[in-house]
Amino acid sequence: MILTNAVAESIARGEITVVFRRWKIPRVSAGHRFHSVAGIMIIDEIQETDATSITTADAEHAGFTTTADVLASLRGDPAHPVFRIQLSWGGADPRIALAATTEVAADERAGITRALDRLDARSSHGPWTREVLRLIRQHPGMRAAEIARILDRDKNAVKIDIRKLKNLGLTRSLTTGYEISDRGHVYLALA
Asked: Are residues 12 and 80 in the same domain?
């Protein structure tokens, strides 16, 4: 689920507890967790609702002043149902602390190597992890589109792959592009 930075930060501060979406079918389920710029978000509840039943209190919980503002914010086909999604902040993104790690023990290094080897082995386009890490190390701030062009791959597939490296604490997202994290630098120096 995509949230604007402002909404994600408001959820983290407890100022917003509800969002509304107009979807053909529900795209999230209760209990689902996802990453945002403000940390981990948790879907507490999702229910289909009639747009005319959205109250002023609902609007305020969603960060709006009026129900008309909520309705005006809804995107998508007006024939599709509206979903009321209650969510909460689940804490800081653990990948941030992991990426800041400057000590990588031998067993951790071996675990990272095994994880990279598994990603390479499962890939439909062959080994990619070390090449992507090399490109990001040599060109901090390089965008996924440029990495994809160099590797002759689809940009969205490259973004997904870089996210896998981020999940291992090896890369960080910048405002534009990516960089090797502290943990990534330590790993690459020892690998």
From this structure: yes
Same domain? For 112 and 81 the reply is: no
Query: Is the domain of 186 the same as that of 104?
Result: yes
The stretch 93-106 carries a mean pLDDT of 91
Structural domain for 36, as ranges: 5-92
Q: Among 32, 49, 30, 50, which Cα is nearest to 41's?
A: 32
Statement: the pTM of the whole predicted model exceeds 0.85: no
DSSP string, 65-88: SSHHHHHHH--S-TTSPEEEEEEE
Rounded Cα–Cα distance for residues 191 and 187 (Å): 6
Strands (E), the chain: 18-22, 33-36, 39-49, 82-91, 171-173, 178-180
